[in-house]
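Sample A.
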Amino acid sequence: MCNVLVTKKLPGNWIDYLKRECNVTLWEDIYPPPKEWILNNIEDKDGILITLTEKIDKEIIDRAKNLKVISTYSVGYDHIDIKYAKSRGIIVTYTPEVLTDATADLVFGLILAVARRICEGDSLIRKGEWKTPWYPTFMLGTEVHGKTLGIIGMGRIGKALVKRAKGFDMRIIYNSRRKHEEVDAEYVDLDYLLENSDYVVITVDLNESTYHLINEDRLKKMKRSAFLINASRGQVVDEKALIKALQEGWIKGAGLDVFEIEPLPKDSPLLKLNNVVLTPHLGSATVETREKMAEIAVKNLLLVLKGEKPIYEVQ
């Protein structure tokens, strides 16, 4: 039987499924395993199944003498040294597509929550501060229907957002590495998108070219009435610049599911701002999606170990 290392418990019965095929060494805690635990356990492993919180670098790959496959339970793979893994003949697999709709739903949830001040309203009631029944200027928010949505990146999630935005009769513009003829939206340059969007949504991968893509200069190009929404990777946004933008009113607000440091530090200035909605990396967090991700991650791993083509391989 093959020997595999698994760095997190997974939803559903997929660890039991894996155990029927392989000898499994499992990290039992909900917190990420220390790097030393991975180094101490990976030497004789044929495969490893990880999540986005585990960094698989050259040191770990060099320790894994028998490693044939790295299966990540995520759509992103910036936590893996892909180039070095491939140089060692190791196949890297991931779980795209299945989490597209769940993440797109969350993005629209963030848009609605920050624009219509839903979280502020909930907090007001819970604190017992709702003193007046109703009046015309109470807690006014911003329309979503009929506004301009700017999507940065036009992969699977970007395309899913286009479908949802159509239901809100939004004008949809996007910027991507190339024009997508099949997408019913207007292709524009990044500056135009920032200057004309009411809602700027980030859906790009994290890589060298997208690190701090949204910086101080680009935040200043946005409308003062606009909102920034990020459910991709925290490092795509210069968080210090964003905090300054929110504090000084360069933009109206933000909806954030990801952060430069996760969990978000308790002293983060973001926690003191009313014009931002914060969620703890919930993009794919539905029962249906997370169980399907577990199925794909396990099957990817096993297919490679059997010498077959995985469902999704990082190219």
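Sample B, a different protein:
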Amino acid sequence: MVIQKGAELCFPQLLNSSCRKPILHWSKAVFLNIMLPCLSLTTAALNLLVIISVSHFRQLHTPTNILLLSLAVSDFLTGFLILPLEIIRNMACWVLGDLMCSVYTYLITSLFCASTGIIVLISVDRYVAICDPLHYPTRMTVVRSKLSVCLCWFYSTFYSSLQTKDVLINPGRYNSCYGECVFLISNIAGTVDLVLSFIFPVSVIIILYMRVFVVAVSQARAMRSHVTAVTLQSSLNQTNKSELKAARTLGVLVVVFLACYCPFYCYFLVKENVVNDSATFFVIILYYVNSCLNPLIYALFYPWFRNAVKLFITFQIFTHDTSGANIL
């Protein structure tokens, strides 16, 4: 009987301090063994294609694509690092130690924050492009986009360090037994995080895109009702159409992000103890799904991404001077 009890422990040699091995429902076990590894590989592979495409082709070095590149980096790290660790944490006992548990907590918090910040930057980019198109080339340059991305990542790392400083200083602080990896926050810290990570950025995103939507609709009606033979005006209309199409595509990106992002924080508002609730796993996975959906959105709406994928599949990217190729 004692042997059987020890066999149920994560570390049988630590009878008094070891956690028990988790007992998973068959549906969750199948999901963790099949679906989640496939999601991890697909997310990492698709976002790696986006990273290589934007980095390799000089024609794609635009302010908007710099923001998409940064979002792809965050999504790639989510698929390559966070999802495998999430599988380990939910599938079996945490065997990587308290230090890796602290690193995992820090990474997931940092990437959450970085993704949200980049979506806000994308909303600002589209707001300037649609609502103030004449000043867009001077206000949204490649250099400023890179600087904005760097500041966003700096803020996310700094904010995550403050939020997870307890487990970074004292790894395993909230673990009740060996083989566990949990992270708890106080009510005050949770409220502050709710405001900074959810209410404020989501409000900014919604307000900016509501303004973009109103202006885009008015511009679309104006272009349909006004026909001119002037070449300059025709060129301007063509530019407006391109910007409107980009705004529509990135609007889909933002809507999908909010659809995957909001359930966790809404769940946080309803439940007092989110960390130990089993349903938390599914709302977190829904957020991870967003990292895989983003490159699929690019594939549906961006011809340059489809053209870049064709060059990869046919190995033409390894030919001479493909970085200057026209893939738009």
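Observation for Sample B: Confidence is low (pLDDT under 50) at residues 1-7, 228-236.
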